[in-house]
Amino acid sequence: MCNTIKSEIIVLIAKALYDKSIEHGIHHVERVYKWALRIRENEELDVNPLLLKLAVYLHDIGREIGEPHAYYSALIAEELLKEAECSEIELKQVVEAIKAHSFSYSKNNNVNPDVLGKILSDADKLDALGLIGFLRVFLYGEKHGRSLEVSLNHFYEKILKLHKLMHYNYSRKIAEKYTERTRFLIELLEREMNGE
After folding, report:
1. Segment holding 55, helix H or strand E
2. Confidence of residue 35 (pLDDT cuts 50, 70, 90)
3. How confident is the model at residue 57, as a pLDDT?
4. Residue 104 near residue 68 (C-beta atoms within 8 A)
5. CB-based contact 58:73 (threshold 8 Å)
6. 160: left (phi over 0), alpha (psi -120 to 50) or beta
7. Chain centroid offset of residue 92 CA
8. Beta carbons of 102 and 154 less than 8 angstroms apart
9. Is the previous residue joined to 68 through a cis bond, with omega within 30 degrees of 0?
10. Which residues contact 85 (CB under 8 A, 6 or more apart)?
């Protein structure tokens, strides 16, 4: 079993390492954690709550290193989890969940998520939808020099398709509802861009 006290210290370290940005900072991580807890509860999933917390708080920790961020986050998580005296099985579960949360990384590297990975993946994708997700796309785009048109196109290429990638019924229902909100916001933006 992971040492509980050392695991909580790792969560504190992770919180300190994330910036305060809305798109991938600590606020995003905390929202993902809330979604993960809701998914676990609504689907009545038997998953270790400490491992879930560790997976969520470490899932984006490698973003500052670069892409693929899931790979770098998994590397960092592995070292931190060793410090927390996690068993090999626990360590592997968290690391694989982190790798699985990224659609592109898991697809390109044949990562098949277990329950922990599915919860993290769904929770992370839910935070990409709705008004918060809408804002995140443009904040990320501005930070990385994307034009308004490129950010808008990102919705059609990825964001509006996320509801189809959900693993659980609860996540899918929420995602469908939030996708409609996102569509509405895009329509408003496009109207304004066209001078309507």
Report:
1. helix 49-58
2. very high
3. 97
4. yes
5. yes
6. alpha
7. 18
8. no
9. yes
10. 2, 3, 6
Q: The pTM is what?
A: 0.93
Q: From 145, 144, 155, 159, select the one nearest 189 (Cα to Cα).
A: 155
Looking at this protein, which amino acid is placed at residue 170? Y
Over residues 27-31, the mean pLDDT reads 96
Q: pLDDT by residue (tens digit) across 38-59?
A: 999 999 999 999 999 999 999 9
Q: How many CA within 13 A on the CB side of residue 93?
A: 20
For residue 88, what are the contacts with CB-CB under 8 A and spacing of at least 6?
none
The residues, ordered by sequence, that sit 6+ positions from 50 with a Cβ below 8 Å of its Cβ are 2, 4, 7
| Residue 144: Cβ-neighbour burial (10 angstroms; 0-12, 13-18, 19+) | exposed
DSSP 67: S
* Residue 188 CB contacts under 8 Å (≥ 6 apart), including other chains: none
Tokens 């390109």 correspond to 108
Three-state DSSP class for residue 60: coil
Instruction: Report the distance separating Cα 79 and Cα 114, nearest Å.
Output: 21
Q: Kindly state the tokens that stand for 30.
A: 């905390």
Residue in the block written with tokens 């940005």: 21
The predicted structure's pLDDT at residue 195:
82
What pLDDT, on the 0 to 100 scale, is given for residue 110? 79
Residue from 71, 74, 73, 53 nearest 8 by CA: 53
